[in-house]
Amino acid sequence: MSQKIVTRFAPSPTGYLHIGGARTALFNWLFARGHGGTFLLRIEDTDRARSTPEATAAILKGLEWLGLDFDGEPISQFERAPRHAEVAHEMLANGKAYKCFSPQEEIEAFREAARAEGRSTLFQSPWRDADPATHPDAPYVIRLKAPHEGATVIADKVQGDVTFRNDQLDDMVCLRSDGTPTYMLAVVVDDHDMGVTHVIRGDDHLTNSARQVQVYNAMGWDVPVFAHIPLIHGPDGKKLSKRHGAVGLEEYQAMGYPAAGMRNYLARLGWSHGDDEFFTDAQAKEWFELEGIGRSPARLDFKKLENISGQHISIAEDAALLSEIEGYLAAAQQPALTEMQRKGLAASLPFLKGGVKTFPQLIEKAQFALTSRPLDIEEKAAKALDTVSRGILKELTPRLQDASWMREELEAIVTDVAQAHGLGLGKLAAPLRAALAGRSVTPSVFDMMLVLGQDETLARLNDQAA
């Protein structure tokens, strides 16, 4: 592609960042980054009653967690209102728009009568072709002089050609009587001024596109490439809502999914590259094309999300993983790690990250390294610490005092002591788990010994020895 690609994500700051919005942002990011293009962020904050700084902060935080970096500073749509009004007046001057003096009561009366008579409720303004000499000195809106014959066709990269009959589209208001621009005008002006080449957004915007294309045409501007992606549905096939569970992006961080797993899963939610399920960011950027997006709504599947997340945890670098776990704890409003716990968890990660799917599971496995003496022994684990087992632990402790603390030697010593009592290694593992972790389900006892180190291991064994 010779043209430099520019995409944008344009959320409204009226609440949390919805998972559907996060996927839209991801698709725009992947497409731009994969083609050496630009990915921009525009905050559509024209709804002053509902837009809040807190919601804007939540959007920025969500994008940061998901790892979607945008180019330049976020653009405020509200701050660009004078530019939007300028374009409305330019269309007015060029005969592409007109002043409409019809009050709201008149429009409502027209629609009520049309409904009663079974006619189209699209308002046909009597001012469309009125002589300016007849204009009253009264408040007016600026309406687009939209074509009434023929059709508007959206050549969509996902949906194919979508046709709208022009007689089904009204002369939309571009500038209100108080001089403020409408959302429909603002979006087109912003996308044009920002140089957006590809508009990738939810298919609930398809009708908007038909009306927005008419503004592009009226201004003689290039129409961007459109790609309207299907919405995300819940596992039951119905539109995703809070009854399906988490719908806000920040909830997924608080549930303990890694950002890389979330990116991978969201990319596969409605887009595919052959049969590939698990892939890296580099692969996703290389592979992502609009033609790979399906037309049917994607279904949220937590099992798939968990499986993909587990694979990403297993290949993550330990330092990055530790940092992300700390971010998870903060998001989940859990206590921060102490310095001792941080060191213990860092030492444990190479042994623990292979068999977990979420951060809560990883932290559960790491409890032995996060807790300090004296251990609180679980009831089930305590049963393994009978008199015989405690006696064996007492015998094992001096043997371990002179060990070099290499895995092979530790295994040899423990196996030797077990065999001396006619036991298999598995039989001695249960009391060792209880003594080292206070639990019956733990990582390998040798992994725990290596993480805890010689002094702490011996101290814990001594605490439980008879």
Characteristics of this structure?
single chain; 466 residues; mainly alpha; Rossmann fold; Glutamyl-tRNA Synthetase, domain 3
What is the topological layout?
Layout: E1 6-9, H1 19-34, E2 38-43, H2 53-66, E3 75-76, H3 81-93, E4 97-100, H4 104-117, E5 141-144, E6 151-156, E7 160-165, E8 173-175, H5 183-193, E9 198-202, H6 206-219, E10 225-229, E11 232-233, H7 249-254, H8 259-268, H9 281-287, E12 298-299, H10 302-315, H11 318-331, H12 339-352, H13 359-365, H14 367-370, H15 379-382, H16 387-401, H17 407-420, H18 425-437, H19 445-464
Parallel strand pairs: 1-2, 2-3, 9-10, 11-12
Antiparallel strand pairs: 4-5, 5-8, 6-7
**How many β-strand runs?**
12
CATH topology of the largest domain: Rossmann fold
* Number of helical elements: 19
Which regions are unreliable across 5 or more consecutive residues at pLDDT < 50? none
The H-level CATH homologous superfamily of the largest domain, spelled out, is HUPs
Q: Reading side by side through the largest sheet, how are the strands ordered?
A: 1-2-3
Q: Let me know the average pLDDT.
A: 94
Gyration radius, rounded: 31 Å
Strand content: 5-15%
Count of discrete domains = 4
Structural class: mainly alpha
| Distance between the first and last residues' Cα | 75 Å
Give an account of the 3D structure:
α3 packs across α5. The radius of gyration is 31 Å and the shape is elongated. The longest helix is centred in the last third of the chain and has 20 residues. The protein is mostly helical and 466 residues long. Its EC number is 6.1.1.17. It catalyses: tRNA(Glu) + L-glutamate + ATP = L-glutamyl-tRNA(Glu) + AMP + diphosphate. Catalyzes the attachment of glutamate to tRNA(Glu) in a two-step reaction: glutamate is first activated by ATP to form Glu-AMP and then transferred to the acceptor end of tRNA(Glu). Belongs to the class-I aminoacyl-tRNA synthetase family. Glutamate--tRNA ligase type 1 subfamily.
